[in-house]
Design goal:
The protein has about 260 residues and is an alpha/beta fold. It contains 13 helices and 8 strands. It binds 2-phosphoglycolic acid. 2-phosphoglycolic acid (PGA) binds next to strand 8.
């Protein structure tokens, strides 16, 4: 079964809505139909940019996908500052990142919060990009596979196999994020393989085969091809390198 690769740009807390429009216009110019036939490409801007990005993409009928970086576990109510899956679905978000290590660290998001956010995304028809990954300390003790599998099991607790079909997993070793220390292609592949094996076990081989598994952590145009060579690696979640449209477009065109 062939899985369509996904290259997603996580802008983090960068680019205002005017800058977002300029970046999306450049991407629309640089990435063409031939690319979109081969690869799904998505931008994941801050909340304040999403409406502008949606308007441009819909108005110009661009094939670029978009999503959000977080969502509330709740659909509405007295949760000052939070944004719900209902709101993101109304904006046409295809994806929402859940469980990014920066949210786990700076917002104390534990596995049970991540699980409730995965459920909220699915309940609103949005595909979660579920992030998992180990710290340098865990890897130094060879605990990375056990750690990632335990994050995965907790995040997917109570999720049906049919729902797993909508999920994308991003393996993002914390030591590789924003550091310039990209994982070796072998490390990315072996973890992706372990993740797929776990999903095949829990949700069935067919769903395991369909699942898209991304690698994230210091991906650049110079390293994307070797990362994508791994049989179980189906794309990349790109942070820093997604802020510069020419560089992000080069990454999205890895297949050429
Ligand atoms: P990076 O970030 O590409 O800047 O390392 C990746 C991510 O955090 O999604």
């Amino acid at each position: 079964m062939s899985r369509k690769p996904l290259i997603a740009g996580n802008w983090k807390m960068n680019l205002n809505h005017l800058e977002a429009i300029a970046v999306v216009q450049k991407l629309a110019f640089l990435i063409d139909d031939k690319d979109f036939e081969a690869v799904d490409v998505a931008v994941i801007p801050p909340f304040t940019d999403i409406r502008s990005v949606q308007t441009l993409i819909d108005g110009d009928r661009l094939r670029l996908l978009f999503g959000a970086q977080d969502l509330s576990p709740k659909n509405s109510g007295a949760f000052t500052g939070d944004i719900s899956g209902v709101m993101l679905a109304k904006l046409g978000c295809t994806f929402v990142i859940v469980g990014h290590s920066e949210r786990r660290e700076h917002h104390n998001e534990d596995d049970s919060i991540v699980n409730s956010k995965v459920k909220a995304a699915l309940a609103n028809g949005i595909s979660p990009i579920l992030c998992v990954g180990e710290s340098a300390a865990i890897r130094a003790e060879n605990g990375e596979v056990a750690h990632v599998i335990s994050q995965l099991k907790a995040a997917l607790s109570g999720i049906t196999p049919a729902q797993v079909k909508k999920i994308v997993i991003a393996y993002e070793p914390i030591w590789a994020i924003g550091t310039g220390n990209v994982a070796t292609p072998e490390d990315a592949q072996s973890m992706a393989q372990a993740i797929r094996a776990q999903i095949s076990k829990s949700a069935g081989a067919e769903i395991g085969e369909r699942l898209r598994i991304l690698y994230g952590g210091s991906v650049k145009s110079g390293t994307i091809r070797e990362i994508m060579a791994g049989a179980d690696v189906d794309g990349a979640l790109v942070g820093g390198a997604s802020l510069e449209p020419e560089e992000f477009a080069r990454i999205a065109k890895f297949h050429r």
